[in-house]
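Bug #77: duplicate submission created two jobs. Keeping one. Sequence:
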Amino acid sequence: MQPIHLGLIPDGNRRWARAHGLEPWQGHERGAKVMEECLRWCVDEGIEEISVYALSAENLIKRPEQELKKIFAIFSEYFEKLSRDEFVHRHEVNIRVLGRTYKLPDPVLGAANKVAKATKGHANHFLNILVAYGGQDELLRCVQKASRSRVGRITKRLLERCLWVSRPVDLIIRTGGDRRLSNFLPYQSAYAEIIFVDKFWPDFTREDFKECLAEYKRRRRRMGA
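Kept job's structure:
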């Protein structure tokens, strides 16, 4: 059985660039191309929803200014490209950019809004691009929103309606060798299967992706039991 909702932590772009004697943003450029290919792999495999950890809230603070400018330029370019991509529209991929988007430069925010508007009516597949995102921040905002509702008490259903990403994650793939989730969808990933891949994201291939799906199928999901 395939995962319905796949989480991706595409780590290792900067280390890949360093290993190849390149500037950090050249690793991000290569990583963006692999992500574009990965969207097609997911659609081909019938995965309904993909959530990608593109930039954490901490990255927004700690990354050098020049690197962030390059990252923002890559975001703008790819959001614009996805808004008119024939594959996206043919397969009806609904794309949302989620996180503290108000902290993004105007060109990036404009491109994010453009791709969301262009794909709003699509409902076959869903791509959540998490930018300036932190899982604890999402939960805090979720509780604040729920507490302001007119419902008498906060329930699990109400909380899940207030989350940026509502569907639970079935499988998380993290590249780059680190064994942690780094504040990625903590509520939604409560019972997710996790596969850590030692390769850097720019080296991640379709064969690696298929092996991750095969490993997922071999596992017995106990869902806390």
